[in-house]
Amino acid sequence: MFNFNWIDLTIILVYFAAMILIGVAVMKRASKNMDAYFLAGNALPWWVLGVSNASAMWDITGTMWLVYNLFVYGMKGTWLPWLWPTFNQVILMVYLASWVRRSGVLTGAEWITTRFGAGRGGELSRIIIVIFALVSVVGFIAYDFQGMGKFSKTFLPWDLSANTYAAIVMGITAIYVLLGGMISVVITDLAQFFIMAICAVIIAGIAMSRVPAAEIAALVPAGWDNLFFGWKLDLDWSRLIPSLQQNLVSDGYGFFGCFFIAMLFKGMLVSIAGPAPNYDMQRILAAKTPCEASLMSGIVSACLLPRWILIAAITLLGLKYLGPTFAAQTGKIDFEMVLPFVIKEFIPVGLIGFLMAGLLAAFMSTFSATLNAGGAYLVNDLYRRYFKPDASHKHYVAVSYVAQVLILAIGFIFGMMAESVNQMTQWIVNGLWGGYTAANVLKWHWHRLNGFGYFWGMLTGIVAAMIVPKLPFIPTSGLGQFGGFGIILAISTLGCVWGSLRTKPEDPEVLKKFYRQVRPWGCWGPIHDAVVKEDPSFKRNTGFGRDMFNCAVAIIWQIPLWVIPIYVIFRSWKALWISIGVLLITSTVLKYNWLDKLDAEPCPEVAAKR
């Protein structure tokens, strides 16, 4: 626990008050209707939504995990975020965001109706995606609850329990989310992003001034600064920090080449499935047009650059000043020591309060966006559709307040039941996403998948996600962790195929409407022929090859955005210039082969007003 100066405490309290005032200020505008409350009326610029989306991804628990990866694995650790996978944003940027936005709906569950219609199968598929959305939202809130409690207990000056801290901070956040809806969330996300970006640059300056470039090579093992790898990891910490060898073994990344291939395969499947029904989906639907949805997803990757500045700076200070302490330790090292040490030793009075506000903001941003998305599903896709379809706008907004409080309470309960942040992270990454992937890949690319198949695929996937990760023979780290994902994926795929083939195909009129509106590529031959028969002028989407090429280029384009800040802070000038060259080449290719062609596509205003 830190001894805070009154200046730092004042800054933190003023920050909390300012966030609540933002919610009050936009309350009237947000409460006009459901579009205004959950999508900000589709009036926000794409770059604002992109910065907000990036801010929502910048949670401090994940940041400290990335610090650990960089500290232990060096530049190879920058590949490990593909576990989530972080390159899903470039898949959205290239083509999927525009496909999603063409529906003109309010939530991901409502989007399902455009694919499967309003029949029994369509209703079942819509219900199951609502269930998945609520389960995932509660899971993310439990994750935030665990992380916020641990973070606040470590840093804030009052002697409260971790659960009490989490409830207080997340309760304050919920106030401005409830009052201002999506508008409030986006405005506060912008403020939080710039606070954290400024803090990152300041800490980077401190790190570079404290650790001369000539000292860095002696702090890390051979190969630490090499971004590339062979089949084996080949890092040896035994001379510098012997106990880190235990981490290398327990993490299970020794055969890094095999691990990378499995990570890439899983990441591509999850990314092609499209955005999960959470804050990412909501920001795509909130974009003005399909083109702006694509641009919004593209800017997210660039907006994560300040996060990597912070990660590199904390890592460099940790290597220099905590390396000797870690070298004397035995057993597994607690890398959460790094951040409090950096704040205590290197951040001056006043700036500590500013930094703490920014770190709290990183938590609050993810949580606020998640809570807003969960409320949209509960109200629009359950309450409004099945209980009170003809109420006033004010009534639905009022019910949204209650819905989000309910979601918050359930998330708190599960957060208190969870054993650790890592437990929640592993379940979300390897369990829940495994249950989501199969049905949502097939919905884009296989016309024969019907509502019943989607329902059974999602249901078996969700059940498997609850059971498989708890099986004693399923590893939770290293290459073995993909076994659980593969089992869940296989079960869900069987559910999709079985459910579809044992029931009638979807109504041709529903499929034709979907195909005309979204214009996907894939196994849509019979539907395309039917559409062309009615409208000979209709043109097939022939962009598969171009989209796949652009996805490959965009994944390469994304890598320099992560490593350039690290190379600057660690003064690796040769690697820096190579990375800048790669960024310029890939940016040029994307400009001519993606952006110019994207601008030529029709991007009508399709948002339905409620």
Largest sheet: none
- Topology pattern, helix = H, strand = E: HHHHHHHHHHHHHHHHHHHHHHHHHH
The count of helical stretches stands at: 26
Briefly note the CATH topology name: Sodium/glucose cotransporter
Would you kindly provide a written description of the structure presented here, covering whatever features stand out?
- This protein has 610 residues and is mainly alpha-helical.
- It has one domain (6-418, 541-600): Up-down Bundle (Sodium/glucose cotransporter), CATH 1.20.1730.
- The protein has 26 helices and no strands.
- It has helices at residues 6-25, 27-30, 34-39, 46-56, 60-73, 88-101, 108-116, 120-155, 162-210, 213-216, 244-251, 256-272, 279-286, 290-303, 305-321, 323-327, 338-346, 351-386, 393-417, 421-445, 451-467, 481-501, 508-518, 525-534, 544-569, 573-600.
- Helix 1 runs parallel beside helix 18 (351-386) and helix 4 (46-56) packs across helix 18.
- The protein is globular.
- The relative contact order is 0.16.
